[in-house]
């Protein structure tokens, strides 16, 4: 771990003022990481329309920051289907495989459940083995359909690592968001997970 990774990243709600910093993070991703997240070209630097969809979705967006620098992004957005929320996240290269992605997905999932989501949707490249393993491990009841090079997972809405969500668990996760920034305390545990590429 280098000196810039000593403190825990803070997770907070995202908005339009984060566009420049998010663009910087996305520009620093490898081509493979960008492909797994977007499955298409986003431009270098990313197009403004892409950044605005990420920061102001029809749901909610969150960023993780370390010393004011964005190192992760997660979001949920309403998808076709009754009460279905699509979840997505992307993590800076230096922060991947440290648990930040699943922590951010948990934050987005809790917010989606609090907003009425009863199902989650993930769209993942069939080549993204780590994301596929993470979804199968964290949401084992997910069904999957293949469409060319993409896999679409649908699962009942519950937070990862928990079989079902009690109201007080969801309220605790969402309550943390209402106070602004929070330390993402569980994100540096050793796991072999990356986030779904949507």
From TrEMBL:
Transmembrane stretches, start-end: none
> Any idea where the N-acetyltransferase domain is?
9-166
The GO terms this record gives for MF are: acyltransferase activity, transferring groups other than amino-acyl groups
Q: Which Gene3D superfamilies does the annotation name?
A: 3.40.630.30
Which branch of life, at top level? Answer: Bacteria
Q: Does the keyword Transferase apply?
A: yes
The record's annotation in InterPro entries points to: Acyl_CoA_acyltransferase, GNAT_dom
Q: Which UniProt keywords apply?
A: Transferase
Q: What is this protein called?
A: GNAT superfamily N-acetyltransferase
